[in-house]
Amino acid sequence: MTNSGAITGLRRENLSRHSTIRIGGPAEYFFLPESFDDLSRILADVASGSLPSPLRFFGKGSNILFSDAGLSGTVVSTKRLTVLTVLPDGSFLAQAGVSMPYLSKVAAFSGRSGFSFMAGIPGTVGGGVAMNAGTPEGDFSRIVKKVRVVSPEGVITTLSGDDLDFSYRHSIFSGEAPECGVILDVLLSGEASDPAVLQEKGKESLIRRNERQPLDRPSLGSVFRNPQSDHAGHLIEISGLKGVQKGGISISRKHCNFFVNEGYGTAAEFLDLMEEVRQRVKTLTGFLLVPEVQTLF
């Protein structure tokens, strides 16, 4: 263990423990801050050289593939920054680690629409904003009003939703080390609606996802982005790849755009299977699939 002010970090912590697909080697230094003060101390220690660079951030690890060899430097998960505040005007101020399904439930009970798409997405608000997570029902670009970010130097900046360059599964935070900084909290707002209707809509959304996706298996969610005129899962299936397995990683028979860990899979096998899929789908359908999963190596 190591200390950064009052927060204790872990040496050689296996990142597989912090990944929804249970893959990843050890982090040189690993921290789970529970407050902005904790995070500020970590940033200061990296800036002073007391903790090693590079500085890397992630949320719940639900869309990030970690290296089998692990990561050098200082690695920070924001999943314990979980304060959610319902403001008097009905908007929500969510710290980066707030669970998307939890926010969806609170919004439904509060009678605010636009959040039901989060019901079955096992990630955090910070991660969701970074990749503009969504479903056909909606995405973050429609409900984000402001985002507070902190730079590696500890400077806090407020950005409006219009500043975030949202597009399909993209924002200015996309990529391994966005220059704009790391998300602290997000102001979100939806239209007033009937809470009972919204609660039922959220339940229906979750039922559909459970029926169509292997939510009970270790995975990283959708592996590829959907091309404009088709769906990645459909293209993978018609290319004859349903159930194909490479080492400990297999293509889900329930939804072909999900790769699942059979219990002994590696990041190398995941990447090999991704490339095999991309090449087969390109050859048979003409579509070159674009990865949605992020890598942190």
From TrEMBL:
Q: Which InterPro entries match?
A: FAD-bd_PCMH, FAD-bd_PCMH-like_sf, FAD-bd_PCMH_sub1, FAD-bd_PCMH_sub2, MurB, MurB_C, MurB_C_sf, Oxid_FAD_bind_N
**Could you name the Gene Ontology cellular component terms for this entry?**
cytosol
The record's listing under SUPFAM superfamilies reads: FAD-binding/transporter-associated domain-like, Uridine diphospho-N-Acetylenolpyruvylglucosamine reductase, MurB, C-terminal domain
> Does the keyword Metal-binding feature in the UniProt annotation?
no
Pathway(s) where this gene product acts: Cell wall biogenesis; peptidoglycan biosynthesis
> Which cofactors does this gene product need?
FAD
Known HAMAP family for this protein? MurB (MF_00037)
Q: Please report the name of this protein according to its UniProt entry.
A: UDP-N-acetylenolpyruvoylglucosamine reductase
Its taxonomic path starts at:
Bacteria, Pseudomonadati, Nitrospirota, Nitrospiria, Nitrospirales
